[in-house]
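step=encode ok
step=design start
structure_in=
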C-alpha cells in the first residue's frame, strides 16, 4: 500500500488537511566535480519528489478542503507546504553564492519554488493553499552544528507562520518568521 493510500484509509472522509514536503538532500555541488548523476539525484529528490507526493495526496487534500466549510484558505483547511531554502532565491544568490556554490541544491530549490507557484495557481480552484518556507540555517545533519538556529526554534517559529497563513499567502516564498524572500 502506498503512503497516500494508507493515509486515505486512515483518515476516511475527513481527508488530509496539511502536507509538508520536507525531505531533501544536498551534495558537494562544486562546478569542478559536478556530474550529470549528481544533478539528477538532487533534482529527483528535491523537486520531482515533492511534486509527485503532492499529486499523490491531492485527492485527500481536496476531500479536506470540501469537508470544511471555511471561506478562508488555511493550513487547518487544506495546504501544501514546501520546505525550501534561501539558496533557491535567484535574487539572493548574487549575495550568498560566494559563500556556498552548491549548484545542484540551489537549482533544485529554485525549481521547487516554481513547483510551489504552479501548484498555488492550479489548486486555488480547490481552495488548497500552497506556500514555500525557508526554515533558516538550522542545526540538523544538513545544517551542521555551525548553524545558528536550533531545530526547536526553527520548527516552533514555522508552526506560528503556518497557523497564520491565508489565501493572501498562497504562492508566496517566506522565511521561518513569515518574512517574504525575493524570488
Ligand atoms: N538545515 C538547514 O540549515 C536548512 C536550511 C534551508 C533549508 N533546509 C531544508 O529543510 C528541509 C529539512 O532539512 P534538514 O536540515 O532536516 O536535512 P537533513 O538533516 O539532511 O534531513 C533530511 C531528511 O530528509 C529525508 N530524506 C532525504 N531524501 C529522502 C528520500 N528520497 N525519501 C525520503 N526521505 C528522504 C532524510 O531521511 P533519511 O535520514 O532516512 O535519509 C532526512 O530525514 C530540507 O528540505 C532542506 O532542504 C534546511
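sequence_out=
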Amino acid at each position: 500500500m502506498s503512503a497516500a493510500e494508507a493515509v486515505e484509509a486512515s483518515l476516511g472522509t475527513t481527508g488530509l488537511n496539511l502536507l509538508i514536503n520536507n525531505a531533501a538532500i544536498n551534495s558537494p555541488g562544486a562546478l569542478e566535480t559536478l556530474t550529470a548523476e549528481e544533478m539528477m539525484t538532487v533534482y529527483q529528490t528535491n523537486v520531482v519528489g515533492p511534486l509527485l507526493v503532492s499529486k499523490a495526496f491531492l485527492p485527500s487534500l481536496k476531500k479536506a478542503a470540501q469537508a470544511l466549510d471555511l471561506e478562508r484558505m488555511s493550513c487547518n483547511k487544506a495546504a501544501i507546504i514546501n520546505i525550501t531554502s534561501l539558496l533557491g532565491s535567484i535574487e539572493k544568490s548574487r549575495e550568498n553564492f560566494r559563500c556556498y556554490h552548491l549548484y545542484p541544491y540551489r537549482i533544485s530549490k529554485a525549481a521547487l519554488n516554481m513547483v510551489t507557484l504552479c501548484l498555488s495557481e492550479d489548486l486555488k480552484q480547490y481552495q488548497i493553499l500552497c506556500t514555500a518556507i525557508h526554515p533558516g540555517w538550522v542545526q540538523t545533519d544538513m545544517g551542521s552544528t555551525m548553524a545558528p538556529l536550533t531545530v526547536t526554534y526553527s520548527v516552533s517559529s514555522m508552526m506560528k507562520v503556518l497557523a497564520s497563513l491565508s489565501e493572501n499567502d498562497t504562492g508566496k516564498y517566506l522565511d521561518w518568521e513569515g518574512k517574504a524572500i525575493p524570488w
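step=design ok
step=annotate ok -> Residues 22-25, 45, 49, 83, 85, 134-135, 137-138, 140-143, 147 surround NAP (CB under 6 Å).
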